[in-house]
Automatic annotation (TrEMBL):
GO biological process: tRNA pseudouridine synthesis
Source superkingdom: Bacteria
Primary gene name: truA
Chain positions covered by the region annotation Disordered: 178-197
A molecular-function term among this protein's GO annotations: RNA binding
Name listed for the protein in its UniProt record: tRNA pseudouridine synthase A
Annotated catalysed reactions: uridine(38/39/40) in tRNA = pseudouridine(38/39/40) in tRNA
Binding annotation for substrate: Y110
Organism: Bryocella elongata
Chain ranges of the Pseudouridine synthase I TruA alpha/beta domain: 9-102, 161-274
Active site residues per record: D52 (nucleophile)
Assembly information from the UniProt record: Homodimer.
Length: 310
């Protein structure tokens, strides 16, 4: 029985998230329909995570098995012919039957894209920062943010988030309890999803058009990335100080953090599976630190990565 791994890119705007839902258009549902049309088999492809309504993917991963063997190149070509233009299969691989898109994953990288109408520190016009217009060819996939944002303050505010800790303050709040756990990578137990997660890195990058947040973690709670971004924006615009972030974490209370950033700016960028170059880089980083006699919190994160990779 052949087993396949697909890497997908999709525009989440027209979909009610990844997971199949009755009478609603979802990415998983469209993919299952395409597989059935191409192969005649009814299978439900398993995704690496359940992206929420309106959330996009640059590198979502799905896995499934078929009863009949089909050449990889033929399957790849046929799926892209029948899928809607908003969903593309980037790569198709035949893999070992033990591979599972979600359970084999060792982490994910999310990107959040934000357009700054007013650039912090930019030249003044009549004593004010001039307002830029977001291109209509960009607007559907970014947060069109009206505030000027202090990049250094946001980077400082992001620092306490690195490491393994309780991220309850950044999980979906009471208003979301009726919704499915769309972004949650946890296996919920009797008391619900495990709020203990590891954030390995948060990087902010500013270009002429965009401010991009890139967050690499072991897993994410529902709305966790969007709530982190919303809180960092509050810091960037001066509504919160960077020093508040530690208190927000320790509060373990959603009301302590900032608002939820809009779904349309969020992209699942990459799903990490071993072997992956990132694990080798971590071993090299740890060797360098040990050689120099340095001790840091980063070494604990590296060590955890190595343990997970095993």
């Amino acid at each position: 029985m052949p087993h396949f791994k697909l890497t997908l890119s999709y525009d989440g705007t027209p979909y009610h998230g990844w997971q199949v839902q009755p009478d609603l258009s979802t990415v998983q549902g469209c993919l299952a329909h395409a597989i059935a049309e191409v192969t005649g088999e009814n299978v439900l492809p398993q995704g690496s995570g359940r992206t929420d309504a309106g959330v996009h993917a640059l590198g979502q991963v799905a896995s499934f098995s078929l009863a009949v063997r089909i050449p990889v190149a033929n399957l790849h070509r046929a799926l892209n012919r029948v899928l809607p233009p908003s969903i593309r299969v980037l790569t198709t691989e035949e893999v070992d039957a033990s591979f599972h898109a979600r359970h084999s994953s060792r982490g994910k990288i999310y990107e959040y894209r934000l357009f700054e109408r007013r650039r912090h520190g930019g030249p003044l016009l009549a004593g004010r920062l001039p307002e830029r217009a977001c291109s209509p060819f960009l607007a559907p996939w970014v947060w069109d943010c009206r505030w000027p944002l202090d990049l250094a303050a946001m980077e400082s505010g992001a620092t306490p988030l690195i490491g393994t800790q309780d991220f309850s303050s950044f999980a979906a709040g009471d208003l979301d309890k009726g919704q499915r756990l769309a972004d949650d990578d946890s296996d919920p137990g009797e008391s619900g999803p495990n709020p203990i997660k590891t954030i390995h890195s948060i990087a902010l990058a500013r270009t002429e058009e965009l401010l991009t947040f890139r967050i690499h973690g072991s897993g994410f709670l529902h709305h966790m990335v969007r709530n982190i971004v919303g809180t960092l924006v509050e810091i960037g615009r001066g509504a919160l100080t960077p020093e508040r972030m530690t208190g927000i974490l320790t509060a373990r209370d959603r009301s302590a953090a900032g608002p939820t950033a809009p779904a349309k700016g969020l992209f699942l960028a990459e799903v990490i599976y071993p072997p992956h170059p990132i694990f080798e880089h971590m071993r090299l980083d740890r060797t360098s630190l040990e050689a120099s006699g340095m001790e840091s919190r980063g070494m604990d994160i590296v060590a955890e990565h190595e343990e997970v990779a095993r």
